[in-house]
Amino acid sequence: GQQVMQIPQYQHVQEGEDFTTYCNSSTTLSNIQWYKQRPGGHPVFLIQLVKSGEVKKQKRLTFQFGEAKKNSSLHITATQTTDVGTYFCAGHGGATNKLIFGTGTLLAVQP
Amino acid sequence: DGGITQSPKYLFRKEGQNVTLSCEQNLNHDAMYWYRQDPGQGLRLIYYSQIVNDFQKGDIAEGYSVSREKKESFPLTVTSAQKNPTAFYLCASSLRGAYGYTFGSGTRLTVV
Description:
The structure holds 2 protein chains of 2 kinds.
Chain A: E1 4-7, E2 10-14, E3 19-25, E4 29-37, E5 43-49, E6 55-58, E7 61-65, E8 71-76, E9 85-93, E10 99-101, E11 105-110
Parallel strand pairs in A: 2-11
Antiparallel strand pairs in A: 1-3, 3-8, 4-5, 4-9, 6-7, 7-8, 9-10, 9-11
Chain B: E1 4-7, E2 10-13, E3 19-25, E4 31-37, E5 43-51, E6 54-57, E7 64-66, E8 76-78, E9 87-94, E10 102-103, E11 107-111
Parallel strand pairs in B: 2-11
Antiparallel strand pairs in B: 1-3, 3-8, 4-5, 4-9, 5-6, 7-8, 9-10, 9-11
């Protein structure tokens, strides 16, 4: 079945350092979404990318959708302690077009 | 304010008992979903509904049941047939399938 993998599983950074998480799908996706889940909380929708090669920015966060629409990345510039949480990508694809969540990347930021 | 309300926040169940988790939304969203999250894991789809009186099984539907009698409500029943029900259950909704999901705050179910 369709799988969406993320790397790394866990990243520990010093506050101020940059952070990137990568998302790879086994099949072509019609779109890619990103969510953030704070510890003990629920996922919160951040953004959706639809076009091949699309790049979107939200303040210190930069999201990219690959040319082949099978991979994506989230880059955070100059991390802050408020960035702590698990970042999930999720994509629509396959015969059923269900939203498949990635495995997530847990970001820890040391002040 | 519009949103999704899940209740209860914490639920304890004895083995062999069925329990029902509530999910209500006032966002006028067509589609609703139930996910299960285990510690340190991603989200796995249990059931989803794109329209009233219709729903489909997700990837891990065994031991669960749902109903969608009203657009606003999508309750999930965890039956005694679910062998390992202790988990964090998340309900979500979306305007249509290809839009971003809005999640409820979740229900933590523990079998005692």
